[in-house]
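Lab notebook page, bench 4
Experiment: in silico fold of construct C2
Operator: M.H.
Input chain length: 124 residues
Purpose: comparison with the prior construct
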Amino acid sequence: LAVLEREGEGEREREREREREREREREREGDRKREKEGERERERESERERDREREKGGREREKERERERERERESESEREREREREREREREREREREREREREREREREREVACAVADFLAVY
């Protein structure tokens, strides 16, 4: 009887050991699953970070393009102001030429009057 009890006890002990081994295996399997899920989560986070960087880069590129467009608008405005200043200088030169022509006409009238006076005085 004692032998049978020891054999039964040995069998129960072996069964408890197999159960502990199955439990350890389930824990290891859970650990592997958690590790694999952690890896997937780190990869997803890494992908989200790359997306944020791309988006940030896109925003930066868009801001740079907007700054470039603003510089171009400013350059065009400056060119337009320069063209307007040149047109104004040309109008001023034209007004000066007109004043010079007017002075020349005035001198011509004065010569004509002087000649007429000289002719009149010569006759009398």
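Observations: The mean pLDDT is 93. The helical segments are 2-123.
Next step: discuss at group meeting.
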